Fold these 3 entries.
Entry 1:
Amino acid sequence: MTQPTRSDIAEQGAAGDAELEEIYRGAAAVDVPPEEWASLSQWQLIWRRFKRSRPAMIGGILLLLMYLSAIFCEFISPYQLDTRFTENIYAPPTLPHFIDSAGQFHLRPFIYKQIRTINRETLEMSYEPDPTVMYPIHFFGKGVPYKFWGLIPTDRHLFGVDPEVPIFLLGSDRQGRDMFSRTLFGARISLSVGLLGVFIGIILGSVLGVISGYYGGLVDDLMQRFSELLISIPQIPLWMALAAILPVTWSAIRVYFGITIILSLLNWGGLARQVRGKTLALREEGYTLAARAAGASDWWIISRHLIPNNGSHIIVVATLSIPYMILGETALSFLGLGIRAPMTSWGVLLEEAQNVRTIIFYPWLIMPAVLVIVAVLGFNFLGDGLRDAVDPYSK
């Protein structure tokens, strides 16, 4: 049975054919009166179906929180990227408490003073809380001065304690730097690499794919053979080879953009092939033929008809491509070929967890890997939900 159109439903009305209404309801997956179906736009149908996917909504909320945390990382983190506490090297996570050792409840959370001891035989440091000394956690108080996004000077932080007493929600590293603060700063780099890299890849993949499918012939053959060549080369060795040729004299910001461009230039081939396949069908549609017969230019047809009609598919592919960009940057930085100091990314933070001994004694150092997994799963859930929602008439 063919899929009903919205005009068919509008003509039938609320008292129309029950079977037709049931098919449309199951296809559109929207719980609205039949008389309102004809008034829903394509994007409204997509949003209504997307909201019915719980994993996609959870993934979207997680990603929203992660990106907001990255944007406001200077404010949320209690310390700056390079703030050091030399007396608290490899300190374990500091857990906030509401109930003290005497069983009394406190409205304001607090932390205990950490006492460091050194084993004279193994020279290993250990930290034990002192339940007799408590430090309350202050919110929206003054702390380490910073410039928000390098522009607005301020010293307000979301939370903090006595300036002489550090709070390590995710522990500290070998230089006594707060891992929670460094993870937030690293999120800004890792997550932005995914967005910026995919944005460049989308432009290349969508434009080249549409041109390849629209013109065909020699143009199509050359573009497809080149994209197949990129896809056939193992990506990790190619990433490493291209990243290794970046000059060591480059600044951190130039390396950041260099890594982003490398990742984007090597990931547009798959999207181009998919867009090309859809364009082969769209170029034979009536509106495309009518525009061509009316004397419209090729660029007008491509920009007004072909690219917009590939929009929903491009959005889905982009959502599913961002995790690969994040993993690519993390892998390169982990191997020492990606982001360089003074910048910090999740891959740079994972460099300190390259041996088994570190993971066993200081397991909090692998927290950036957990965030990478959460980000990748969030994007996959979001992409799966969008993929199902872009075709609101499918069962």
Entry 2:
Amino acid sequence: MLFLKRIKNNLPILLLLLFIILPIKPTLAQTPSAIYLLTVEGTINPITAQYIVDGITEAENNQVECIIIQMDTPGGLDNSMRKIIKEMLNTPIPVIIYVAPQGARAASAGAFITLAANIAAMAPGTNIGAAHPVAMGEGQIDEETKSKIVNDASAYIKSIAGRRNRNVEIAEKFVRESISITEQEALENNIIEFVADSMDDLIFMIDGVKVTTSQGDKKLTTEGKEIIEYNMSVTDLFLHTLTDPNIAYILLFLGMYGILGEFSNPGALFPGIFGSICLILAFVSFQMIPINFAGIILIVAGLILFIVEIYTPTFGILTMGGIASLTLGSFMLTKDLAPFLQVSSGVIITMIVATGIFFIFAVTKGMKIQWRKPISGKESMTGMVGTARTVLNPDGQVFIHGETWQAVTSNGTPIKKGEKVVDISLEGLR
């Protein structure tokens, strides 16, 4: 009752507040929408594709004015590229591709994605093209299959260019002749719409431009709009780093070192845990990179040879075999892939040399330990010099290693008391 009484007493104030608040709602709804900014740097892979798809979905949910994707890529995987383009062509939100900063490129898959944009722009000192398909699997492909792949890619890029009213002939040359052109050549040949020095210049240039989306024509209003950066999550950034073949290769070797360390020192735990984590991350990475599994098999075979060497020393024979297997496997691992998906020769040589030096050092130490004269036990007395305490004819006593021993001469020749003797073997206490 007291609560209702208070409401009744303050009713005029509540009505006044309601009168003020209600007109505010339409004003909030009419607040100018923002511009989403996505940044793509590096290869086009499943992580990149999911990042762009999620960004477009988020932009649709928030009904933003447009999406700008700043891109610098050497290319990437066909499936990931097509996933991105499919999303771009079917979204009602205008998508602008901006090849930047200066020195950036939109090569291979990047050229396809740029052509699929509603508006394409490039910064000075950038280039686009070189979209000829390359091998993305195990081994070499025959000429007929290669021709089919080229024809498929050619038809796809022509379809995209035609959809966006861009130069179909130049687009086809990106694929068939692997040409690459500068930003000015791209502008002159109707591959892009603008050359922009900066993001501010680009936003100024596209203001008022009419584009066609999946839901019809739309006139862009970008002046004064807030730019919201849509960044990758920490998880996606980590996984994107793993798609670097050099990182994956180094993780593979770190994993091998960890496993070998655990086998060498059973119960140490840390080397085994560290190695297992590195190996798992390496294989997760290799799931996102089309590698040659023959190379993986050879690398694993090298690891097995090293483990066997630890338990059955062969004076370096298995170690040399392991190094040879690692070397062959490493160079075969990404041999038939595009250059940006290959493991650097420098990284391979560095890791192989480091591994070779480590195991040669370990084997050498092992051999020295095996050849070293024992310092305890009966084996340690072999070769020691002593003195005959009595006449040995052939039996008698000798003083060796601070103790008196029963002894017998090796060939039956008598030895006089006080003469030097050498222990050549020990049987029991004689």
Entry 3:
Amino acid sequence: MISYLEFEKPVAALEARIADLRAAADGNEVDISTEIKRLEARSADLLASTYSALTPWQKTQVARHPSRPHFNDYVDAVFDDFMPLGGDRHFGEDEAIIGGLAKLDGRKIMLIGHEKGHDTESRIRHNFGMGKPEGYRKAIRLMEMAGRFGLPVVTLVDTSGAFPGVEAEERGQAEAIARSTEACLALPTPMVSAVVGEGGSGGAVALASSERVLMLEHSVYSVISPEGCASILWRTAEKAPQAAEAMRVTAQDLLALGVIDRIVPEPVGGAHRDPLRMAEDLGQAIAEELDALSRKGAKAIRTMREERFLRIGAN
């Protein structure tokens, strides 16, 4: 059952009409298949036209869709032999950030990413994808391990931001994020990051400071949420749509600005409408990037990272 967003109401009405006609046709001698096909075509056209002209705020809503595939969904669909490695060896385990050894098209990699969860229980367990210091310190440990064993690193970013609670600050949240960013930049092996939903604040940058940064077509990436920005500038979260427009949070804007390197197209209607196809397309894109990077040495890779980040904002 698809959960429709506010701007999808016309599509929802059409699809409800189609469902009603199918139910009425069951056991009915009157042939209404032609009408159903006509409405299905109209619904598909309306969905395509709607998603071809999304505003930044609407893309933000799509990026947050509760049915959008998350880290574990991608692991199940395209990564093989995933072996999770837990703990930061200092404080404990953080299930908002998951990492471990895996294979992609036969290539051994270190896979790290945010997991938001899909229902109330799993969302609470994964802290809604908001990493704590121990999560980022775990990521550092895994990146250093990857460097020692010559494994490329793949990160899947999907977080509204690092956890802002008092206990996280007491355990050194800012320091953990800074050192995770440093670990990305110092990694001697190839690193490819993909923003698959929300890329929020330092919580995202800490896992996305790589030489190749990808974004899904309807994902967003920003220093603060549109609601947070609106609350600061206008003192009301109701101005979030205007903030999203001004902040240039979309993949299309960020590609033009040179902040990211590649956009991975989503199925019509968003990744949540065809998670398996989305996972396969993302896996192929990541594999292509790793193939291109596999011929470069550690010095060349670090230079690529340094140059890509120094270029941002230079013009």
